Amino acid sequence: MIVDSNQIKAPIGVFDSGFGGLTVLSEIKSLLPEYSYIYLGDNMRAPYGNRSFDTVYEFTLNAVKWLFSQGCHLVILACNTASAKALRSIQRRDLPQIDSSRRVLGVIRPTVESIASITNTNHVGILGTSGTIKSKSYEIEISKLSPEIKVSTEACPMWVPLVENNEYDKPGADYFVKQHVDNLLSKDNNIDTIILGCTHYPLLVNKINKFIPDNIKIMSQGNFVAESLKDYLFRHPEMEFKIEKKSDIRFYTTDSSDDFNMFASLLFNEEIIAQQVTLQ
């Protein structure tokens, strides 16, 4: 008997270039604890921020196909660079050929949909990787939904390496954080909201808060992505039906699992044991 794969329940796939997507997954799991999840971190090839569009697209498509091979019907790109450089191509070009019933969602749109209700001055700053900033994805999406908002951006190429190398809470990180926060604020004195346009950056939020005025709000993406996912599943019961509900998470990394296990265990406050995989 041939079994239709669309009738087999499977976890939600969550992908990031490294550790950053764990901050999104933790928020999703907190809001939607009943579902099962698979997390894939491409730590071996991180960071993605300075890579070309074609390379990010290739790497991201590799990851999406791998998560599909694990049965996932729905994949979240918990990576701003992948969302900026690869999401649209995968949605429009690849999904119709792979399986038109599967879905891949990103993190930029849910963040942008929330910004208008948070800023009071309509002056917003974006801190992101070089790839995300060069793509102008935030400016494009904000101009569509909230054209009255003025956007200033700052690329922070050293921030992801600080997180990936476990230096994000060390004194040496202060220089790199202050440098880019100062650069951003110098571009617009009226900024009252800063979007952390990389899922690694919430781990630097204590450092960032040291160098911004008290009146400026910081937007981390995890809770907005989680709320958006909850709404998506409510609006698409046909997809919600396909999600496995065992309240568990399986973790995978393309690099040595030792550093990943230590980092994920600290973030989730429980012992995490990831499996190492190879992406084709």
Structure description:
The chain is globular and about 55 Å long. Helix 5 (108-115) packs across helix 7. It is 45% helix and 16% strand. Helix 13 links the parallel strand 9 (249-253) and strand 10 (275-276). The longest helix has 17 residues, at 53-69. The protein has a six-stranded parallel β-sheet with strand order 4-3-1-2-9-10, with helices on both faces. Strands 6-5-7-8 form a four-stranded parallel β-sheet, sandwiched between helices. The chain is of the alpha/beta class and 280 residues long. The protein is built from 13 helices and ten strands. The mean pLDDT is 95.
Continuous helix count? 13
The coarse overall form would be globular
Helix content: 40-55%
Give the number of DSSP strands: 10
Strand fraction: 15-25%
User: What separation lies between the terminal Cα atoms?
Assistant: 30 Å
* Strand line-up of the largest beta sheet: 4-3-1-2-9-10
Compressed to H and E, one letter per element, the order equals EHEHEHHEHEHHEHHEHEHHEHE
Oligomeric state of the chains?
Answer: single chain
Radius of gyration: 18 Å
| Low-confidence region ranges | none
Major sheet description: 6 strands, parallel
Estimated structural class: alpha/beta
Q: If you average the pLDDT, what whole number results?
A: 95
